[in-house]
Amino acid sequence: MGINYVLNGDKTEERVLTAHLNCDPGRECREMLDTKRAYGKEDGVQYYHIIQSFKPGEVTPEQALEIATEFAKEHLPGYETVIGVHVDKEHIHAHLV
Q: Is 79:23 a contact under the CB 8 Å cutoff?
């Protein structure tokens, strides 16, 4: 899954810039798969990957994490969501799975 990419420590300041909603760190993939199984949704789309990108200097990494977390709470309530803010490029960007 894309979870390993989203949580990549080299991109997220050793996972400081990450968040988990409705799932536990280290168990997120298992929990997502269990949910899919419980609802009979094992085929088709496996997950959605959302990217929020910001202009250089527009936000701090912490602000990007807060924005991504609020977005997930508002638009993905009840879904298991993993968030990672990547700071390895000139522009800060948040990944949500």
A: no
Bridge partners (DSSP) listed for residue 52: 94
Q: Does the model's pTM come out above 0.70?
A: yes
Burial 10-31 (b: 16+ CB within 10 A, else e): ebbeeeebbbbbbbeeeebbee
Give residue 68's pLDDT band: very low, low, confident or very high (50, 70, 90): very high
Structure-block tokens of residue 94 = 């948040």
59: three-class secondary structure by DSSP: coil
Phi, psi dihedrals of residue 22, rounded to the nearest 5°: 65, 20
